[in-house]
Amino acid sequence: METTNVLVLYASKHGATRQIAEQVWRTLRDAGLHAELRDAQDAPDPGRYQAIVVGTAIYMGQWQSEAKNWLLRHQAALSQLPLWIFASGPTGQGDPAESLKGETVPQKLQALMDSLKPREVRVFHGALRTDELNLLERMAIKAVKAPVGDFRDWKAIEQWAAEISQQLDGTGLRPSETLPELQVKTAAAKASVSVIQAN
Ligand SMILES: Cc1cc2nc3c(=O)[nH]c(=O)nc-3n(C[C@H](O)[C@H](O)[C@H](O)COP(=O)(O)O)c2cc1C
């Protein structure tokens, strides 16, 4: 039975983030949610969804512009919806968030996050496959000695998506219902929605 309409949006250059988003989408769907998987390049309108998951690859410390621009463009609508964000980047072992040295969110986007108030921003290990990289990318990862290989933790990804589905279950969100918390948020947001310009 369809219980809610969740958008899983991804911005991926070489496919690793797209595959993570696919796993999130599959897990949500298997949990009985009506979830849609979309590429940020398609620029879908968030208006017809009731919960959003956004995934972006990290390049040179920044989120992919398609994800960033989509979040900026739709921040008024998104600030009223349950939102989860994941970033796929660090390669190697250990806690992926720690390897970003405290910058789970790029500094330039902190004000946007303050406005959107995502329920969580999660960092997952990514994948680097040299045969898919162009010469400049190969030189860049060689310069920083980034470990090459597929470091994606599928168990952690599945678990995170399962947690999202549980949180959505808990809200009792249904296509025909409005979340009380959402109504409060909507009223507050109508009073003051500050639009942050991309820089
Ligand atoms: C040129 C280049 C720069 C990168 N810069 C970063 C970075 O600053 N931080 C990070 O965590 N990962 C970085 N990565 C790793 C990617 O984010 C990782 O490989 C990611 O999973 C790629 O996702 P995609 O295949 O969806 O594009 C970089 C990779 C390349 C090739």
Brief characterization of the structure:
This protein is α/β, with parallel strands linked by helices. Helix content is 37%, strand content 20%. The protein has one domain: Rossmann fold (3-Layer(aba) Sandwich).
Keywords:
199 residues; alpha/beta; Rossmann fold; six-stranded mixed β-sheet; 7 helices; binds flavin mononucleotide
Structural commentary:
The longest helix is centred in the last third of the chain and has 18 residues, at 154-171. The protein is of the alpha/beta class and 199 residues long. The protein contains 7 helices and 8 strands; from the N terminus they run βαβββααβαββαβαα. Strands 1, 2, 3, 4, 5 and 6 form a 6-stranded mixed sheet that branches. It is globular, with a radius of gyration of 17 Å. The chain has a single domain (5-191), classed as Flavodoxin domain (Rossmann fold, 3-Layer(aba) Sandwich), CATH 3.40.50. The protein binds flavin mononucleotide. Flavin mononucleotide binds at residues 12-18, 57-61, 88-90, 126-128, 133, 137, 140-141.
The sequence of SSEs as H and E is EHEEEHHEHEEHEHH
Total count of helical runs of at least 4 residues: 7
The level 1 CATH classification is Alpha Beta
Q: Residue-averaged pLDDT, rounded?
A: 87
Sheet-strand content, in percent, reads 15-25%
Distance between the termini: 43 Å
Assign the CATH superfamily: Flavodoxin domain
Number of domains as seen in the coordinates: 1
Major β-sheet profile = 6 strands, mixed
How many strands appear in the DSSP assignment?
8
The assigned structural class equals: alpha/beta
- Mass-distribution shape: globular
Bound molecules: flavin mononucleotide
Q: What's the Cα radius of gyration?
A: 17 Å
Helix content: 25-40%
CATH topology (fold) name: Rossmann fold
- The poorly predicted ranges are 174-199
CATH architecture: 3-Layer(aba) Sandwich
